[in-house]
Amino acid sequence: MSTKTFSGRAEQRSLDFADALTRKEYGMSFGQYCSSVLIDSIRQSGVLPPLIESRGQSIDKKREAAAFIKGFSMQAKNPSIGELTDEGIKELIASRYE
């Protein structure tokens, strides 16, 4: 079976809480939970967990943001962009404004 690595950024306090909760409930890290329990649940059910309103940000705003990110990612014409280093990305952006 082939695998793929994924990652994301989160507020440290929120991630610490999620990690402590999954360690208490399931005896694993939050990363392990996401890459096993959550992924398997999504694959078996065919749906994502429902979004909840948090910190005054509406569900519609979250959906709009997700749609924007998806649309932006669909515009990429060169798959090698995904392999650029941070420095390479900075150079690519800077070259557009020279």
Q: What tags apply to this protein structure?
A:
98 residues, mainly alpha
What order do the helices and strands come in, and which of them pair?
Elements: H1 12-26, H2 30-45, H3 59-74, H4 86-95
**Distance between the amino and carboxyl termini:** 45 Å
Task: Work out the strand percent.
Answer: under 5%
Q: Note the total helix count.
A: 4
Helices and strands, in order, run as HHHH
Q: Tell me the major beta sheet.
A: none
Average pLDDT, all residues: 80
Please give the number of β-strands.
0
Shape: extended
Query: Low-confidence parts, pLDDT < 50 over ≥5 residues?
Result: none
| Class based on secondary structure composition and strand pairing | mainly alpha
Rg over CA atoms, rounded to whole Å, is: 17 Å
Helix content: 55-70%
Describe the structure.
It is a single chain. The chain is mainly α. Helix content is 58%, strand content 0%. The chain has 4 helices and no strands. 1% of the residues are buried.
